[in-house]
Amino acid sequence: MLFATIHRLPADFWYFLSRLGEMQLMLPIAFALIAWLVWAGEGRRAALWLAMVGLAVGITAASKIAFIGWGIGSARLNFTGFSGHAMHAAAVMPLLAGSITADRSRWIRLGAVTFALALAMLVAISRIKLGAHSPSEVFLGYLLGGLASSLALGLGNPPHAHPQRWLVASVFAALLLNSSMLPTLPTHDVVTRVALQLSGRDKPYTRNMMLRDERLHRHKAQPVVALPRYKASEVEFFTSSITA
Questions:
Q1: Facing residues of 74 across strands?
Q2: Which pLDDT belongs to residue 148?
Q3: What Å distances lie between residue 160 and 71, 92, 153, 175, CA to CA?
Q4: What DSSP designation does 102 have?
Q5: Is 201 exposed, middle or buried (0-12, 13-18, 19+ CB in 10 A)?
Q6: Residue 154 is part of which domain span?
Q7: In angstroms, rounded to a whole number, what is the distance separating the alpha carbons of residues 35 and 170?
Q8: Residue 120 in contact with residue 63, Cβ under 8 Å?
């Protein structure tokens, strides 16, 4: 029943969710949280958060560059690179939830982080619903971001301080106004230009090219059935028996 309800949700809902995972929204929130940690005297934790988020962003960008420039992907999995939206949402939203509930009980913090991961999952699903990514790209992007946020939170160990109310209010305002206020950034175009410059290709390698090459490879790999060879006397015998 739940999955059927989710499947029938309108396209505008999925578009709004998809925008929650955009880099220009998630990364400023992550940097704001990191800056708050530094201000609160938790420099080591801020460095850990920055390293985890930065590593996830770097791996995602590298996977896209590797595919566009060198065709490194998987046709069987329909994988051309980690979904950036899924990764950003899973990497940043749990950090936000863990920070807001830093002074609450352990169960409240756990519930908040779990809710954030569920919301990030909906963001990931929205990329499939909008036809932007394959399931493998979304799942692996979500897994990468979730791993980064889990390590950043220290597997359930939140910051000791609580963020200021103005910071929390600003973050939620950005989340609510994202679909109408934030412009879309040409991040894919930037990644494509970088990939072409590094690889020396004239044109980007695309998903259609990957699937086409896979079909050609399968066609060439199919075994050729050898037809039986007959001697001339056997052919004459078969022919005479048919015409007799």
A1: 79
A2: 96
A3: 45, 18, 11, 24
A4: T
A5: middle
A6: 9-221
A7: 14
A8: no
